[in-house]
Amino acid sequence: MTTDTHSDRTAILTASLTKHYGDVEALIDLDLDVKAGEVFGFLGPNGAGKTTMIRTILDEIRPTAGRASILGMDSHERAVEIRRHIGYVPGDLAMYPNLTGRDTLTYFANLRGGVDWEYVDQLSDRLDADLSKKIGDLSSGNRQKVGLIQAFMNRPEVLIMDEPSSGLDPLMQREFQAMMREVATDGRTVFLSSHTLSEVQRVADRVGIIRHGRLVAVEYVAALRSKAMRRVELEFGSPVDASVFEAVPQVRDVVVYDHRVVLSYDGKMAVLLKTVAEQYDIVDITTQEADLEEIFLTYYRDEVTV
Amino acid sequence: MLATVLGKTVRDRWKATAIAAFTLGLVLLMGMAVYRDIDLAVYTDLPEAFRALVNIPKDADVGSLAYGAVYGSYGALTLAALAISMGGASIAGEERDGTIGLLLGNPRSRTQVLVSKAGSMVLLTALGTVLLWGAGLIVPVLLNVDVSGMQIGALMVHMFAISIFYGFLAMALGAWTGKRTVASGTAVTVLLVSLFAAGLLPLIEGVENLAKAFPWYYYEGSQPVLNGIDWGHLSVLIGATVLLAGASFVVVNRRDLRGRSVGVTLLDRLRANPITQKVADRIAGSARVSRIWIKTASEHQGVLIATSYIMFLLMGVMLGPMYTFIDDRLITLADSFPEVMLAMVGGGDMSTPEGWYQVETFGLMAPIAVMVVTVTIGARALAGEEEQRTMGLLLANPITRSTIVREKTIAMAVYAFIVGFAIFAGVALGSVLGGLGMSTGHIAATSLLVVLLGLAFGAVSLVIGAATGRVRLAVYATIGVALISHTLNAFLMLSDSLAGYAKWSPSYYYLTSDPLMTGMDWGHGAVLAGLTLVLVAASVALFQRRDLRQG
After folding, report:
1. A154 CB near a chain B CB, below 8 Å?
2. Which residues of B touch A150 (CB under 8 A)?
3. How far is B407 from A21, CA to CA, in rounded Å?
């Protein structure tokens, strides 16, 4: 999925970006460099500071310290110029309930000064959106589609989206992911905030991981995937000894329950099985992809002690 | 559950009640202080018919004048308006917010929810009544004014009864329709019409008894502050309230609850019809969203139509012919009024058509009408989009924050001028129909001044919304500012030594120059326009510097 269309041009840059709400530190010294032409996934659990970061670079709120720029323009000084080149889907999207989808798009098109309606119709077909109904009468997924069209419709240089696929069914999510890839192929940039690792893995080139307002890591998706840790549960014919499992490289958190053992593992499954099978008689195996939280806690434990 | 819902509603709303009571207490203090310093003979010498109209008892003294002027109308209007706001929102508000499903997901019935809401309304109205009562007892002591013989307790009991009556009226309408704006809008209209009718009808020979058809009559008709509680009147109000409460419980259990869905308007139906679709699409669709101010204006059509209609027909056209039917005793009063008296009723001398219109239309109703429109738009202009969480999306477009302030101000100004024109047209037509011969130019001048006054208060709500992002705060604080401005001007003008300070009140620049008789005072108009511009500029500055709220 990773492409090399992105260049060395910078789409979004933040330098020591910090935002405090009173005593609460929502963003702390955030340094981020999103390249033009990439899909950048911004991952973090709820309340990590993803939305605060997006609202800050869009000049909705002002940083306590540090600065941000989009396409080389200062996010505050040249906010209006920046907005000519971006598309935005806010988290927890709200629109005007008494306008139809088409009225809503017309409104924003008028504020932008012209939009290619043929392209809007294409987008609407792809997402199977109903633009004739009032926003207030749409289900949240269908409302989300109008929000997505609104962001894509003027072919922006940078798309900034905060949890954009909420409410979309799996089929639409796939279509939406394809649309994001096309934007990147076009040399344009997607900044995608999400708390779902699987979504980001499918579409992003790189991910940044934010926790408690701090950027704890920026990784290529390929690298992150190789780290993808699994929970492994093994059942044996006889009681087992923990030390056997702890001796295998890349095994963590071993817990033994008599005939059963549960452990975390991010190496090759063949290595683990071979070592274990030499000593014990394996009866059953279940494995499960570790969730995002576990990966965070495992790999970024040092960074996230707050 | 009962206690939980009740507690939450009380927590959400007690501040408004406290602020209202505090403001009214302050106004009472101001009123009594001024009345104490002036010669009251000007009141007691007035002919009876006139005294009855402006609520001055025969043996008027400082206490009865102040209670009558401040509590008699403003106090009851404020408490009733707060009760209406709570009553209308009780079930319909939760429906609009989409929270009713969540609430009823708990093992409790609609009846129980409604009981809790009704309980909180009654409780808060009682709180407001007690606070006002307390202020009414403390203020005379502070100012060393003798209020013996004044039955303030009786007045407060009547005030409480009329307020919860209107609260339950709004609750019944909300329970029936599920539409909060319909419920509170209709209840407020009934309130204003009944206030107007109960004051006016007794003046017209032959129809005096019609006043009894209006609820307000049972509040003030018996002058409880002088005569004590009128149990007959009180039981009419309580009986009607019980009926409305009963009706609420019946209707709320019989209908489908509304989802978050928006209503279907006439334009929507026209858009759905193939024959009218093209035209309707242009009006409702592309034209409506062509500019920010046009879209903003389109969202407030309802309030514009209602206020323009009431001002044009009821307060304008109808009052002209009515003047010719009014009791002759009023008209023979010509020239006998002392200057100081005129200020108090908005400068109106009822013996002339101009004075008639000034007392009935321009004194209070016209500024309220324009303010309803300007404050509705002004308070929601910025804070509304923030609370609805649409501001972020709007500002993702290549426009500045000041553009948004400018566009919203245009919408507010356009609407203020439309209401102003309705007032002008109504009064001018009323004058023609009644053969009153008023100057069209002077009517236009007065209408222009009321537009400018309304815009100044609209700008107050805009600036508060810009600074805080909170709609409710902007609305209530502006009402407080307007109330203080109005009474400050009315009272200070009565006192020779203090009249100069009235210039600090925006209301001074509205009727002080007597525009219905003398025409436009451009200087005064310029003060109001200048104030508006300064406040709008301040809104831009404050809004630009602030972090947007996230809803």
Report:
1. no
2. 393
3. 30
